[in-house]
């Protein structure tokens, strides 16, 4: 969301991303889509991530996250440029990270001959909040070296002639209760667009 982490503060993150597309009507004609019978995708397999973010100063934080998708570890940092106030229209944060598949390459090469692969990521997160109830976020992102060069499945990958990915995250958050928010996002991509499923 682009909001800063205070010096000495820590956030813990647990995330699930489900694989099925959501279907609201006529689901029988949309193979692979999940309607009410599949609890709108919650019955499908999930990509699970765990992470922690720690504030070094009121403007600088560091983070580490691990997901079961290709056993990827992400090491990141964020710098808070601005915080929305009466004089500043948006909250702005710059992020940089590097993802490493197969546990960031922490394995013995003789046991796993696949090459280590690291993917640097640059992101600008801009958030505008209205009356502390509704927030809009834009997050243009550039990821480098995103195509898994150790896998040879061109029939199941999209835009394999590219090795980098550009994306534009668009998010909306609505605060329902002081401790409960409903958040949605869509992330269209350009360049290499992933494997098996091609949708934002």
Overall residue-averaged pLDDT value: 82
Proportion of residues in extended strands: over 45%
Principal-axis shape equals: globular
Q: Helical stretch count? A: 1
Alpha-carbon Rg, integer: 19 Å
In whole angstroms, the N-to-C terminal distance is 18 Å
Give the helix proportion (percent range): under 10%
Quaternary structure state of the chains depicted: single chain
Let me know the largest β-sheet.
Answer: 10 strands, antiparallel
Order of helices and strands: EEEEEEEHEEEEE
Number of strands: 12
Look at the helices and sheets and give the structural class: mainly beta
Notes on the protein architecture:
The protein is mostly beta strands and 200 residues long. The chain is globular, with a radius of gyration of 19 Å.
Features:
single chain; 200 residues; mainly beta; 10-stranded antiparallel sheet; 1 helix; 12 strands; 2% helix; 49% strand
Quick summary of this structure?
The chain is mostly beta strands.
SSE blueprint:
Blueprint lengths: L9 E9 L2 E2 L10 E2 L11 E10 L4 E8 L4 E11 L8 E10 H4 L13 E13 L3 E10 L21 E13 L2 E7 L2 E3 L9
Parallel strand pairs: 2-3
Antiparallel strand pairs: 1-4, 4-5, 5-6, 6-7, 7-8, 8-9, 9-10, 10-11, 10-12
């Amino acid at each position: 969301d682009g909001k800063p982490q205070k010096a000495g503060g820590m956030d813990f993150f647990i995330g699930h991303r489900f694989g099925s597309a959501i279907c609201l009507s006529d689901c029988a004609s949309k193979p692979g889509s999940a309607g009410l019978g599949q609890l709108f995708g919650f019955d499908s397999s999930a990509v699970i991530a765990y992470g922690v973010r720690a504030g070094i100063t009121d403007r600088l934080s560091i983070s580490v996250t691990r997901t079961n998708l290709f056993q990827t570890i992400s090491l990141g940092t964020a710098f808070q440029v601005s915080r929305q106030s009466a004089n500043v229209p948006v909250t702005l944060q710059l992020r940089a990270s590097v993802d490493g598949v197969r546990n960031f390459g922490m394995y013995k090469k003789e046991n796993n001959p696949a090459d280590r692969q690291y993917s640097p990521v640059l992101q600008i997160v801009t958030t505008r909040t209205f009356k502390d109830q509704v927030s809009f976020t834009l997050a243009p992102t550039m990821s480098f070296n995103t195509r898994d060069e150790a896998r040879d499945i061109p029939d199941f990958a999209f835009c394999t002639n590219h090795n980098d990915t550009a994306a534009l995250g668009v998010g909306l958050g609505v605060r329902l209760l002081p401790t409960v928010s409903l958040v949605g996002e869509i992330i269209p991509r350009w360049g290499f667009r992933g494997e098996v499923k091609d949708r934002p």
